[in-house]
Amino acid sequence: MMRCSRLVASISRQKLSVCQITHRSLLASTQQNRSKATAVETETQDVKTQKASRSFAMGLFCGQINPEQVFPFPNSLSPEQTEALEMYIDPVTKFFEEVNNADKNDSMAAIEDHTFEGLKEMGAFGLQVSTEHNGLGLSNTQYARIVEIVGEYDLGIGIALGAHQSIGFKGILLFGTPEQKAKYLPKLAVGKTLAAFCLTEPSSGSDASSIRSKAVLSKDGKHYILNGSKIWISNGGIAEIFTVFAQTPVTDADGNTTDKITAFVVERGFGGVSSGPPENKMGIKCSNTAEVYFEDVKIPVENILGEVGGGFKVAMNILNNGRFGMGAALSGTMKGLIKKAVDHAANRQQFGDYIHKYGVIQEKLARMAMQQYVSECMAYMLCANMDAGSTEFQIEAAISKIYASEAAWFVADEAIQISGGMGYMRDSGLERVMRDLRIFRIFEGTNDILRLFISLTGLQNAGKHLKELQKAFKNPGGNFGTIMDIVNKRAKRMVGVSSAPSLDQYVHPSMKDSAGKTAKAIEDFGFSVEDLLIKHGKKIVDQQFLLWRLAEATIDIYGMVATLSKSSKSLSDGIEGADYEAKLCKVFVNEASTRITKNLAYLKSSTEKENIESLKDASKSVIERGSVVQRHPVGF
Ligand code: MYA
What domain range is 406 assigned to? Predict the structure, then answer.
């Protein structure tokens, strides 16, 4: 977090600017477009014909509801895929209940051999690799449902498997040439070789683009020579195949040479690759984590992944693509924790009755169930969209990861609280899960950096959108309808009348109240984004206290929509438990809408502005003193 200034600086370079174009300001934003192709597209299309982003979260920042990806609740599984998936559920569950011993793995800080072999036999190392390359060929949704089971029973194994396929060789799946796929995937898919993802370095954590590992083309142009070191690499001590990111000199059309990140597939067998001892971690102990060193490693040019100089995007895409797995795995973890808490609450008697009969325990159990439900809805909405071919899901992926990792931490804590002294004992199995869970708020992008990422990415999109509107105002000819919509919206806002588009047509009739609250939250959010950009212009990138609150509101709105959509579908289909879903959704929506109002009010409150300054000063004082500053009550 201390070093996210680069992120800030980089978004600053995107030159958000504000100008008055009507009596009520509209924001004009000029910024680097994310891709050249999009830039060309926006130049040649007017507002009406512009290909708008289909991402629900992106639209949110422009005050729009893009219903396509969220209503009705998506399910991209074909009947055949559903049938195939059903066949895996029992054997995988049975394996984790009868063969794997999570406590033993934890105390050995290694996966038992017979478990490892069993996982290989089940095909667990190549879940999404095509059958042609020895894998199971699962879709994202199918993968999610399987890793949910892994997450319920053993997060350490989840990380060993996830570091291998969710990020370790995902680059080969996403960006590999046919030759690279044919060469590496068949062995990786069956667990004959293991993979690891090597991005983080001693001086480069959240600030991923500041890596220093360097790869230089050999004189004969046949190899890159790689030098550098990577830290905290999951599977780093046991992998044979590494996706490695390193700076490479790249010369542009003007003859200027700069270092840009390139991704490589590196084999341990190339020579010059070594690993440190396994790290002694708080949790996920059975998964191997180690430093990896590269010393004059000769990488054939055929092993470049993606384009030379395009490695940062490769890394970001791999991470975006992997994050849904965490949401799914942690939904499973929460289910496991809830089962344990329920078991205790249903059997423990105090003060003459079972403790689940008391309101305090009831609230805890219901809130645990609610957060599990929200995480599950988010994760499966996301992976269904990915399966349906969405390419712009980075905000949703970050939301799902943040929400699920924080929900799981809450659920673990409450499960221990409900279990009382029993929960604190190792035998309960709860303390292991809590230790395992802590890292999920830190790795694959800390939740802090991902919150900034959500807000800044969304604001960038909003700036682009508003700039297009500005163009429409300048050249009203073909955009009369669009302009009138905006003028109407603004006029209504000025007299305090809502112009929020209705969500009623998308939800079950009994969910209309929740739909109304959600639509209102979306409208308020859009106006707040606009106000923020008008007020702060490009300086918004420096307002991390505000960006944080904006991200909180984004996460809540996505949760509202995901649960609203899922519960409505369940009610309409008349499935068992639909009323339960509806109740959880209604509570979540009610509470989220209160939180959103608070977070959006924070963005413009003068008291909060004062608080922000006081908090900044307090932080400065603590840094200067190296600890707390106040004189002790007893004087020394
Ligand atoms: S692996 C290590 C994880 N590390 C991180 O996640 C690093 C976090 N840092 C970042 O993501 C970036 O550095 C940030 C940007 C976001 C801070 N999607 O100038 P920029 C584009 C698409 O803003 P920076 C681990 O933990 C951007 O638009 N594009 O960049 C192992 C721009 O494009 P353009 C993106 O300020 C855990 C360009 O890049 C994204 O330097 C093991 C530059 O952007 C994005 N996300 O920093 C887990 N971000 O140039 C195991 C940026 O065109 C798996 N861009 O404008 C477990 C699985 C679960 C269990 C499974 C069981 C089986």
Answer: 323-447
